[in-house]
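Hi D.,

Good news: the full-assembly prediction came through. Inputs first.
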Amino acid sequence: MNFLEFMQQMVNGFSLGSMYALIAIGYTMVYGVLRLINFAHGDIMMVGAFLGYFGMAVLGLPFVAAVFLAVVGSSLLGMLTDKVAYKPLRDAPKISLLITAIGISFFLENIFNVLFGGTPRPFPVPEYMEHIINISGLIFSVASLMVPIVTLLLLTIILWVLYKTKYGMAIRALAFDVNTVNLMGIDANRIIMLVFGMGSGLAAVGGIFWAVNYPSVEPMMGVLIGLKAFAAAVVGGIGSVGGAVIGGFIIGFTEVVVVAFLPEYGGYKDAFAFVLLILVLLFKPTGILGINFDKSRF
Amino acid sequence: MRKLSILATSVALLVSVSVAKEIKVGAVMPMSGPLAAYGQTTYDGIVLAQKLQPTLKNGDTVKLVLVDNKGDKVETATSTTRLISSDKVTAILGALTSTNTAQVIAIADKKQIPVIAPAATNDKLTMRRSFANRVCFADSFQGKVVANYALKDLGLKTAVVIVDQAQVYSLGLSKAFKKAFEKGGGKVIKKLKITSGDKDFKAIVSQIKTMNPDFIFLPLYHPEASMIARQSKQIGLNKPMFSGDGVANQTFIDLGGKAVEGYMFTDFFDYSAPPTQKSKDFIAAYSKETGKNELNSFTALGADTYFLLVDAMNRCSDPSDSICVNKEIKASKGFEGVSGIINMDKTGNATRSAVIKVITNGKAIYKTTVNP
Amino acid sequence: MNIVIRKDQWINLAIIASALWFIWFASTHFDEYTVRILNNIAIFTILAVSYNLINGVTGQFSLEPNGFVAIGAYVTALLLLDADAKDYQFDIESPYPWVLGLQANFVWALFFAGTFSSLLALTLSFPVFRVRGDYLAIVTLGFGFIIRILAINNPEITNGSLGLNDIPEFSNLYWTGGIAILAVWGILNIVNSKYGRAMKAVRDDEDAAIAMGVNTFKIKTFAFCTSAFLEGVGGGLLAALLTSISPDLFTFFFTFQLLIIIVLGGLGSTTGAVIGTVLVIGGAEWMRFLDEPMNFGLFVTPAMPGMRMVVFSLILIFVMLFAREGIMGKRELKDLFKKGKK
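Then the structure:
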């Protein structure tokens, strides 16, 4: 392997890692506040990608408008699932909530499968996104360059919302203790819904950029990415938005490094996220950022 | 004289009424689940074939019994048992993939019920089995076709193979290709492993670029092959790419877009150059039925399982005698099918030709036919 | 008091006797199709009651069955196939010599299948049960996934995605039904023992259980390993019933089916798990109509492949939202006989 290929692989790892990071921040938000593994997160991401696809391919919207449509649509869907499926179970045993989450996830996958079929559809990537940048032999597309920028942008916005706004304060308070928040006269249910809306909107952005980088959308696309994003969130320190980004990069780089340098083990690529997850749980359950999730969250 | 002829007709009528019976033929197909798209396409062919030829020579009618195996092994076993023990079928058509077809055969072989597989290409499928048959070619032949075409017609000497570890089809085809390619003097530089469902292949294509092979062989299905083609073009890897019949569909071209221009693949037949009279008739019936001319290979193969079976039944004095039917299926020589001329052998394998197509201006264009 | 216990025992004996009689009657009188469905029901009963032990009784949300069933199926298949058969069918890579040497009779094969699954469960327990909360779900989900990847990528042991074929067909209704009865009986005994009470205590209030001196790690691990053992055995029976296995058999859908079964039957009720199995596995044949075109008289809906899965997930959500108790709640069959007591 020469230096150029090495650097190219690093670029590849960076672009894949930022993809996982983007999806993991949405995951960690919902988990941080509700301590609910929202199995449907990956599927809301799929819905977001489909909405983007319909916006562009069917309605003929420009890319930015399609992203807007997807974010709004997915946020509404996220809030709706919260209202219909999760809210009635706030006081039920945790297991009921998790089973419902699995049910929602399966429902979304299969209703999309029934309505639109399982055949992948080509995502209409805007011309300028497919443009190739070549810096002395290092090659990457505009689309893959945009992912880390979008991730950083969203990260900044989320941190700003969490630490500089009234709602953010309520969200952080909620993450500590739901009952106290209610006593303070804040409608916890409204805040939880808001978190679901935000988390689902982030999932939609993730879904669209995933579809731009790997231009095919199909009902099952969210399953594996959702799981890996969760693993990324745990590895980085679940509940921490920054940790999710770090975790995403670790998993993305691991996958690329294995395929590039140990091609013999390329078949195990998808397993590494889970192996990392198990290792972290064994040796440092609080994740890399070491967030103690019985106390602080963000 | 007139009386006599009336008598004769009425006798003939009487005979046919009293003798004509209904023969049940089972079909095990994934009509739902992950393989549904392929299953439905194949079943369309079987149904249309039955519509075109619903009766046997002796007046017996054939009734199709379809069971959906949902692409699942447990369901496949249950469906096969149901067809044999409660529907009492004479023969079974299906299933689609090699693993599920192996399941059907495992049960049917013990009960001496012949199975005709439309599209299961794994070499081992028919070995050590007496009642297993197929109308498609096996992996070993397809691998040979690609290897010889690349070596002799295109003069490509080195190849990188990308194999999907999770697909039986991919494993079988890559193995067959490697064997034939190296026998012909070519060199497989590297076999790279992927798993179906992967989307990011940048790490793989970056490696291939450094290896600089003459061409890339991708015995994959369309979702993965199209993504690899796109990501290769992105990093400026412009080597010829070759696949098997796994990408022989329009979805592949839609997904790949401009990146699959010049992409080559093998297929069973080409609707624009119908190889037999039967294909012409079938395509006409198909376009009357659906309004489309583009007959998918799977539909053609599905139809051929049915036509081959009916042809074999016609040669048996008792068409519901499954042992005789099985013997006659294997004895079919020069059978004119929808997808081309099929010669069956004792092992239940079909000897048949393959076609090579190349994607030009967003269309799969017929290039040549390779005979065995 | 004594009389009540005796009555219970009589009822149990009567149930077991009639179940045994039914197995004999079914094997000798029913056609193969029915027998096969009964075999499926028996195997899924084993899986459902053991899955219920960790999910329903101990209250730990786990998504492991497909992983352990796969392990059990592969162990059994490798032990039952003789060296010749293995050598012949290993097509991708030639098998390791020790793989060829594996050989055992059916009983030992099932025992090893269970033990091996159980040991793996024990190793998984350490990372999972050390942390509280719902990591178990995601780790077990990942575990099932890793098992599939291992099966695909180790063709020297598993023959990769080609899977193992021509497994001797040892399973019949006597085996599957007999082991199902044993499994139900065994699980009921555990549930009614002091371990069972500790499991329920963990489910109902973990903090209280810790305060009462229950070693929750030990109890959870015990429940998890017991489930894994029976799931391994169930996998073995499945392999010897189907006679061919491959990695694509053990996807997450397998687990999802079991989840529906125990939720529908009533989380925590072993009797419910049995009823759920009969409804879901038996009902699956009946549910076929959902995927077919439907004629409502006025209009005809086109065939919608996959509709069944939508219905499945809706059932799951509805049961959780509106009938969280499922059919049996946490009750067992015997509770139905002593109505007056509660």
